Amino acid sequence: MTSSSGLPRLSRRALLGSAGAAGLAVGAVGGALGQQALAAPAAGTGGSTGAALGRATIPFHGPRQAGILQPAQARVQLAAFDLADGAGGTGSRDGLRKLLRQWSATAARLARGEDAPSAENQIARDAGPCSLTVTFGFGASLFDKTGLTDRRPAALAPLPDFPEDAIDRARSDGDLWVQIGADDALVAFHALRVLQRQAAGTATLRWQMAGFGRTPGATPHPMTGRNLMGQVDGTNNPKPGQDGFEEKIFTGGDGWFAGGTYAVVRRIRMLLDNWENLPTDRQERVIGRRKSDGAPLSGGTETTAVDLTARGADGALAVPADAHIRVAAPGSNGGAAMLRRGFSYADGVLADGSPDAGLLFVAFQADPMKGFVPVQRKLARGDGLSRFIRHESSGLYAVPPGAPEGGYVGQALLD
């Protein structure tokens, strides 16, 4: 179902789900569709029921893949696969074509909430579709391995190294990328296991990461989520219908990738012990917003536009020169913008006892060389928040347009 603008129509249930769209604003722009979430009424008189959560569906088929424009769900599984050894060369296209056709059919079935075949592990047997979305992307290496280098999108080039990066290449990149979102952890994990088993013999799992956001209905009314630093995070994402939104998020032109987008994926560990030792007022100055309600230090409420020229009674800038929202602001970066769907993660503790926790950063954009790269370069040079985070894995993927009924993702490339 689409709106008059041609974008997928978001149900009340989907809007409430955007409370999970929290994510550290590394990359500049806030959580997905946050303002729509703030404006959405609560379902019924006491919030959404468990039954409503389970029944919510998001169609897999359409001009754009699901899991991009929709608000982030409560749970996510991110994974990358590599074509199996011996599957390289032009002959691998048949195997890749077969896999993507099977994956697309499976993702559509799971999104509808249909019963799993008896051959599948019954992990999610008792649950409904729970707003499940499955999004597929292609890494640069996929085009080389399949003899399609001449059809690789121009901006699908290695991301540059940034100061203070600590990238683990074993948990980065990959030929095929999958983002699975759902409002139930078992539903998301079940989908990943099904896709992984279907890939046997064609592609092997390279890395896997699990994340979470706020559960829909956990707050008395829809609110912007918070990240693991306790900050309200997700206020200023670009929104469908705004001037320039389509051009900044989706590619134009002709060819198989027209209407697609690029996904930058980063695993960003938060140095929570160091952060939590700061008094609240120092944390607020690092971010540039009040911790209590997310309002900018220049005044107003959460949704008030930040005034980067405002000064306090002492004459000092209200929003410090190295505050995250100042350095990351689109106005400070030539208008660069990304559509983020971030999730928190918590994977125990490291050898030194510090938390292995932070943000799974996912950002969609029409050109990462005009979106993520210039913003991250500026953040790496002058963002006060950089002292409290570490970028530990990275990937860039071409996310094709959606598949029509009866078709599969990537069909225009492979057929």
Features:
9 strands; ferrochelatase activity; oxidoreductase; peroxidase activity; signal; Deferrochelatase; five-stranded antiparallel β-sheet; 415 residues
- Largest sheet, if any? 5 strands, antiparallel
Mean pLDDT: 87
Question: Approximately how much helix is present in the residues?
Answer: 10-25%
C-alpha termini separation: 27 Å
- Helix/strand structural class: alpha+beta
Number of helices: 12
Poorly predicted runs: 1-47
Indicate the proportion of strand residues.
Answer: 15-25%
Order of helices and strands: HHHEHEHEHEHEHHHEEEHEH
- What number of structural domains do the residues give? 1
Radius of gyration: 21 Å
Q: What spatial form do the alpha-carbon principal axes imply?
A: globular
DSSP E strands, number: 9
Question: What do these coordinates show?
Answer:
By secondary structure, the chain is α+β, with helices and mostly antiparallel strands. It has one domain (12-150, 158-402). 23% of the residues lie in helices and 18% in strands. It is built from 12 helices and 9 strands. It has helices spanning 12-16, 34-39, 50-55, 92-112, 140-145, 185-198, 245-249, 272-276, 280-287, 324-328, 372-382, 411-414, and strands at 75-83, 133-138, 176-182, 203-212, 261-270, 339-340, 343-349, 355-365, 389-399. Strands 5, 6, 7, 8 and 9 form a 5-stranded antiparallel β-sheet that branches. Strands 2-3-1-4 form a 4-stranded antiparallel β-sheet. The radius of gyration is 21 Å and the shape is globular. It comes from Kitasatospora gansuensis.
